[in-house]
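step=encode ok
step=design start
structure_in=
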């Protein structure tokens, strides 16, 4: 009998992983044993992606070679560009990435699992190109060059989006967010990707599954919903009143709470510091004050804390990124975690096929269609 607390597989151990720990006693959040605090302070996103894909931190030469490999895989095939051009201007950018991933899988299919590492790099490198190519084509008709000299994903994306290189500290802010978003154990999209991989399907299908699962507001879509919430208020007092009203109406406040963390999300403190710095620098301080007031109200009224998505939203906003691209940024980063999980699943595969508790009608006699009353 499934209890209410087990609904949604809460607390159910669904498999093993050596990739990360989420809130585990004595560990906290770690990727391959390294704490998120250390990684977000000292590493780059590329270093973290290597760590996730290979299991160890790279040596300097390995990191340089990896970054160069990624840089060399940013171009888009013409047929993929044509698909991006015929997608609606009004499409959600998550749908664009989902389609782009699928299309690349048609043009450059995975013919054997030996190609998995190459394909993971190809996707990591080309997702920003897909998104920005589609964006600029539909905004202004420009068919942009999707290759830049930037040696990291954060700088490359901001360059493509804004048409000019971004300042170093802005690239670092995005780099840190990408590190924080890269991996999170058996979250919904990763588990979904592992299920696809467990059928011995290809890597593109697994990543497409991940994108589709991430899109919802209870998962990755929460960063966009958080921005819409914060932006809706003119000042902190209005935010307090508005959130109180929403709670009274039993509405969920996006960017708060977590299935696994019960007291705090360790990623939130890291991204909150960047949110404060960038809001002050860009004179968007009211957004930070509004966010802090919402945080205080949620702690006071519900005992709930902000998750990564809440303060990530204002960081992305200060970087001039349109709100509808916030969840795609999550895709850029989580592709490293999803791929690592697909590799791990393939390394010791058994079809993931759970059982269900039946609660439908009892056995019944079949009535032919012309005899039904
Ligand atoms: C993340 C989340 C889906 C976890 O959900 P869960 O483990 O299934 O927990 P529930 O949704 O059952 O919530 C448990 C209780 O806390 C409340 N709650 C949880 N998150 C809440 C939120 N963000 N705002 C208001 N109430 C919330 C629920 O209403 C519920 O209250 P009840 O017992 O009185 O009905 C949930 O916290 C949520 O929806 N958060 C907002 C979306 C979000 O930020 N997602 C990104 C996660 S990283």
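sequence_out=
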């Amino acid at each position: 009998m499934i209890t209410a607390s087990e609904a949604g597989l809460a607390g159910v151990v669904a498999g093993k992983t050596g990739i990360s720990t989420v809130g585990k006693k004595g560990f906290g959040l770690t990727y391959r044993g390294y704490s998120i605090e250390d990684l977000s302070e000292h590493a780059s996103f590329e270093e973290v992606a290597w760590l996730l894909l290979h299991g160890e931190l790279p040596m300097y030469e390995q990191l340089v070679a990896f970054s160069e490999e990624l840089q060399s895989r940013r171009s888009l095939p013409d047929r993929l560009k044509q698909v991006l051009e015929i997608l609606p201007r009004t499409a959600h950018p998550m749908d664009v990435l989902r389609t782009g991933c699928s299309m690349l899988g048609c043009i450059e299919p995975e013919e054997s699992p030996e190609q998995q590492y190459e394909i993971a790099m190809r996707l990591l490198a080309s997702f920003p190109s897909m998104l920005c190519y589609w964006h600029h084509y539909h905004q202004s008709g420009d068919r942009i060059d999707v290759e830049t000299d930037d040696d990291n994903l954060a700088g490359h994306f901001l360059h493509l989006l804004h048409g000019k290189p971004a300042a170093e500290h802005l690239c670092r802010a995005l780099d840190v967010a990408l590190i924080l978003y890269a991996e999170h154990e058996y979250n919904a999209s990763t588990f979904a990707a592992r299920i696809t991989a467990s059928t011995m399907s290809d890597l593109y299908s697994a990543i497409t599954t991940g994108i589709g699962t991430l899109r919802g507001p209870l998962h990755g879509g929460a960063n966009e919903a958080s921005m819409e919430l914060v932006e809706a208020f003119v000042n902190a007092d209005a935010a307090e009143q508005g959130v109180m009203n929403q709670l009274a109406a039993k509405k969920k406040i996006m960017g708060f709470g977590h299935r696994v963390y019960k007291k705090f999300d360790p990623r939130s403190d890291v991204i909150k510091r960047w949110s404060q710095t960038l809001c002050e620098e860009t004179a968007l301080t009211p957004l930070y004050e509004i966010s802090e007031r919402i945080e205080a109200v949620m702690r006071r009224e519900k005992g709930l804390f902000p998750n990564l998505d809440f303060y990530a939203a204002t960081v992305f906003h200060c970087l001039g990124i349109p709100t509808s691209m916030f969840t795609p940024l999550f895709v850029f980063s989580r592709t490293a975690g999803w791929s690592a999980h697909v590799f791990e699943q393939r390394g010791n595969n058994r079809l993931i096929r759970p059982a269900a508790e039946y609660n439908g009608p009892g056995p019944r006699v079949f009535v032919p269609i012309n005899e039904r009353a």
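step=design ok
step=annotate ok -> The longest strand covers residues 20-24.
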